[in-house]
Design brief:
alpha+beta, 5 strands
Amino acid sequence: MALEKNVQDMIYLVSCAVNQQIPDKTLVETMQSDAVYDLAEKHMLSACVAFALESAGCKDARSSRIIGKALQKTIIYGNTMNSLKKAFEEADIWFMPLKGAVLKDVYPKPGMREFGDYDILFDASREAETCAIMEALGFVGKPSGSHYHKVYRKRPYLIFEMHTALFSNLHDEKIFTYYQNIRTRLTGDGCEKKFTREDMYLYLIAHEYKHYCYSGTGLRSLLDTYVFLKSQKPDMEYVAAEAEKLGIADFEKQNRSLSLHLFGEGELTAADLDMLDYILSSGAFGTRENHVENSLRQKKWSKLQYMLDRFCVPMRKKNIKYDSFSAKYPYFYRHRILLPVLPFYRVVEALKSGALKAEFMAIRKAR
């Protein structure tokens, strides 16, 4: 697979940024910077590109805007996180920052690691108190469609996802079981908890694997792997043993191979290129097309079976989707007599948003 020039240029600049190398100015002069930025935005890597270009003396209005916004966002989220930590400590509620809230600190420069929100794991037995804390800080909570986390928003752009668990029973059974009693694996004497380096890496890979298998994941996740491995140097013997328990050993090896070869040193293998092709097509948050294709393949469904499953509403708690549906549509599940109406309500919602048309197009394209 031959990579397009804009893709090659983006990867080169991102690699320069995280490895703290100044890009070759003669190479930079051949780049279509706007096209590279547009591509980087799809993978939430525009700040890396901007930092790299500015280090080569190619500062312009777009790079200044991107870096300025990234730094401002980092500061505002950091200040809010400090307020949240203080409130949790006063209430004696244990909590643990996740993903971008931690990864931002392992990148070479503040603002380099882009994020859309902060994810926080907290004591599930203190959910009502946590909700009160978030509301006292000016956040408005809304159901996320998941029974294990709730989304809290605050203007202008603050979004905190508050998790009572790391994975749901809708995800891979081995991963769900492994992380079901995660509190016993956390370190820290005070209210703020954290993973060991090895467990943090395993969680990142397990989370990436979930998205990879569902609808795809982009280059930012792959870059997270590279930066974490390079800066934290986890014990890979421990990682290999635990990855086997999680059922993600092959994925971890291939993901690690691609990240090290793409952003570090070494030639890309055929397996690397296959994985890279899928990742490049996914963007930062995956695609509907990938989700349909993956569902049909993994569950060995026909297109008709897929559509029937999307239309059906779980009525009983033993259904694996029940918790997610009841979290997303609480009114219908509080007034169960209305549940037969819910499929039609969902269709109307999807028609209004355009999601129904997009999904039918994805189903038609599926092989």
